[in-house]
Specification:
Blueprint (H helix, E strand, L loop, with lengths): L5 E5 L2 H12 L4 E5 L4 E3 L4 E3 L2 H8 L4 E2 L7 H9 L4 E5 L6 H4 L6 E5 L7 E2 L2 H7 L4 E8 L9 E8 L6 H24 L16 E2 L15 H10 L6 E7 L2 E14 L9 E3 L4 E5 L2 E9 L6 E2 H7 L7 E2 L1
Parallel strand pairs: 1-2, 1-6, 2-5, 6-7, 8-11
Antiparallel strand pairs: 3-4, 7-9, 9-10, 12-13, 12-18, 13-16, 14-15, 15-16, 16-17
Length: 315
């Protein structure tokens, strides 16, 4: 049985679940590396990462380097004498960092690798209409999410699931997968498998304004999947044209209705209780929406105080 000295690297809530699991199972965490504090809000108050907040509550040693190649940071890291590093939702590591510990550096990724390598695997699995996804652990190498696989676990994607609910499920099973991976490393029982490379591997591109915009000319299914795959963050958006108003709006939740109609694409049909948009072979029924400068609200609340003109359109 190996005596593990672990450095944990991560930043958001997704990583906290794994760190908590390791702490609860009495693993020796000799250091936690997380993002520097960032000013946020009107007062520009310094915001600590979710990982830092939890690590401090457990009296763990926290390092917050701005540059992972900085000599002072590398010396601090060496002084921890870690023999295993675990990375969950952090950033790309330089070789000098990931090759430092004797037993290697492994990463938890929220997809069934080799599919959905990249920045937004949870979102893209839903956007692309997948019915299954999962989590993978692998040893880090020079490229992004390409290292030798250690373990995987899969779950079904519910047809109504959004990125938020899937994130929480994967966060939980991911923490358990990391625990199993650490146990194998501790017992020197790891058997890795190289990732298979092929031309049809799907990528989890970084989300940006362009790929988060709704194309109302797309299929009913694709529009529905985009909305749920981007909810609650960063949210699908489009342009609302209503009389003299041209507004960028966000849509957080929707249903779909498959049916034939004679409306032009993007036409808005509103009643006192319902708001829907005509698309090819059906309607997108909007459930939660956000207008500029307003809070996110359900459709009924919106329709109580906002009127759609007869020629209103989504673009």
């Amino acid at each position: 049985m190996r005596d593990l000295r672990i450095v944990f690297m991560g930043t958001p809530d997704f990583a906290v679940a794994t760190l908590k699991t390791l702490v609860k199972n009495n693993y020796n965490i000799v250091g936690v590396i997380t993002a520097p504090d960032k000013p946020a809000g009107r007062g520009q108050k310094l915001n600590e990462s979710a990982v830092k907040q939890y690590a401090v509550s457990q009296n763990l040693n926290v390092l917050q380097p701005t540059n992972l190649k900085n000599d002072d940071f590398l010396n601090e890291l060496k002084q921890l004498h870690a023999n295993l590093q675990i990375v969950v939702a952090f950033r790309m590591l330089p070789k000098v960092v990931w090759q430092m510990p004797e037993y290697g550096t492994f990463n938890l990724h929220a997809s069934l690798l080799p599919n959905y390598r990249g920045a937004a695997p949870i979102n893209w699995a839903i956007i692309n209409g997948e019915t299954k996804t999962g989590v993978s652990t692998f040893f880090i190498d020079e490229k992004i999410d390409t290292g030798d696989m250690i373990l995987q676990d899969s779950i079904a994607i519910n047809p109504e699931e959004n990125a938020g609910s899937l994130h929480d499920k994967l966060m939980h099973i991911g923490s358990e997968l990391v625990l199993k991976t650490v146990e194998l490393i501790q017992q020197n029982l790891v058997k890795t498998v190289p990732q298979t490379e092929s031309s049809d591997i799907k990528t989890a591109y970084k989300l940006d304004r362009d790929n988060c915009k709704i194309d109302w000319n797309d299929s009913l299914e694709n529009i529905y999947n985009l909305i749920r795959g981007l909810s609650p963050y960063p949210a699908a958006w489009c342009i609302l044209i209503n009389g003299n108003d041209t507004l960028d709006i966000k849509i957080y939740a929707a249903d779909k209705e498959s049916t034939s109609h004679n409306y032009s694409i993007g036409t808005i049909i509103s009643t006192k209780k319902e708001l829907k948009v005509a698309v090819s072979k059906g309607y997108i029924i909007i459930k939660e929406i956000k207008l500029p400068g307003k809070r996110t609200m359900d459709t009924k609340s919106l329709l109580n105080g906002y009127a759609f003109e007869t020629n209103a359109k989504m673009r």
